[in-house]
Amino acid sequence: MTSSWIPRNFLPQFHHSQDPISLESRSGALISLPDICKAETPPCQLNPLLFNGHLQTAWTVMKVAGPHIFYRRKVFEAVDPAYHGSFAVDFVVDEFADGQEADLSLPPRTTYFTEDEFGQFTSSKMDSSPMLVLLHGLSGGSHEVYLRHVLALIGRKKGWEACVVNSRGCSKSKLTSPLIYNARFTPDVRQMVAWLHEKFPNRPLFGIGFSLGASILTNYVGEEGSNCLLNAAVVCSNPWDLSVGSVALQRTWLGLEVYSRAMGGSMKSLFNEWVYEGPTSQALAKEDYRHIDEVSKNPNIDVEAVQKVKYLHEFDSSVQCATWGYPTGNAYYRDASSSDALLAVRIPFLAINAVDDPIAANEAIPYAEFKANPYTVLCTTAKGGHLGWFEIGGQRWFAKPAANFLVRVASDMNLATPPIISESARGKLDPDKSNGQRFDSTRRKLHVAS
Length: 450
What we know:
Elements: E1 13-16, E2 22-24, E3 30-32, H1 33-39, H2 53-59, E4 70-77, E5 86-93, E6 110-112, H3 115-121, E7 131-135, H4 145-154, E8 161-165, H5 187-199, E9 205-210, H6 212-224, E10 232-236, H7 242-251, H8 253-272, E11 274-275, H9 280-283, E12 289-290, H10 291-295, H11 303-307, H12 312-324, H13 329-336, E13 349-354, H14 367-372, E14 376-381, H15 399-412, H16 423-429
Parallel strand pairs: 4-6, 7-8, 7-9, 9-10, 10-13, 13-14
Antiparallel strand pairs: 1-14, 2-3, 4-5, 5-8, 11-12
Helix pairs in contact: 4-15, 7-8, 8-12
């Protein structure tokens, strides 16, 4: 891993506590979390033609097929009335049989479960295969290439089960309430993880999030703390401090006119997107439907103002604030940022960021918080851009350390034994509160009435 012939720029850097947790291997040996992460992270040798973060990021929009992953979709109704509505979950399945086609109303290689198929799919309560829960990035979905690169390394052919929790309205799913997702919208992933734990009690559960999904996953894991049902988690290209990131985007012409404009445009397109009601066999006989029809039921949404949006921060001010009651876009960013939630993480947690990421800015990464929490490790690379990390041949480097880490924890670690933490580290994490002082790193400023 540290051979002298490898250029320094190719060597990932690791940031973590000086007194990290250790995990017990199945042989009984104790291995520190940073040592596991380092052992499973290969040198970062990227395509030399994509030599900076802008080129790496720009290449992500190229229409590359990527690994073929097949899904069956199930729509879940929210169990918490405060967050009423539905969300679509795409489960990874074997390649469709000859003659079986994907649903034209859904992304490629995706179709709906029939009731009988879903009943059979969930009938094996004794199944102990590891299960991966994936959260995609802004306005994305299970079809995203970056996500499928991970599934190609850790999917069903490798003995894993997996599902993608699509954010509401994404991946051609129908919005059924005016509540849209945001960077701290954790109810759907919380419900899904609890459902998986109940349906498959013998499956160890793991999570991975990308970009905005990384923010959601970090917030969820932090909110759950020591009660988190996941055994470990990975986040890639997390924007961390959204307020700092927004300022950084608006500070340069490329940040504002390319990245922020593109992201704002993608969210506005999602706002205006036409979708079908359900499976093609039913949908083609019904009228089409636009997300705006549902979102505009919220009287606080000014539809005309949303149609004039150019940039992401304008969309957030027009839609997120109106939906959730935040007084300003910056108030939303401060509340939804995951940098403080990192301090409450109590499961093995690996984050991967590129220092040259033009969207998830380096200045927004909470380096001090990683050093303060022994359950967490940050891996940074000098190059890679935003969810890029393209190697020669089109492979994505980040998928390797992410998949390697999860496989190592699932296959080599004794998951029945909680992570081992020293008394000194525990004391710093949970200091004496007898003086009445207490810092709650996941305290919400926004309260939603049920």
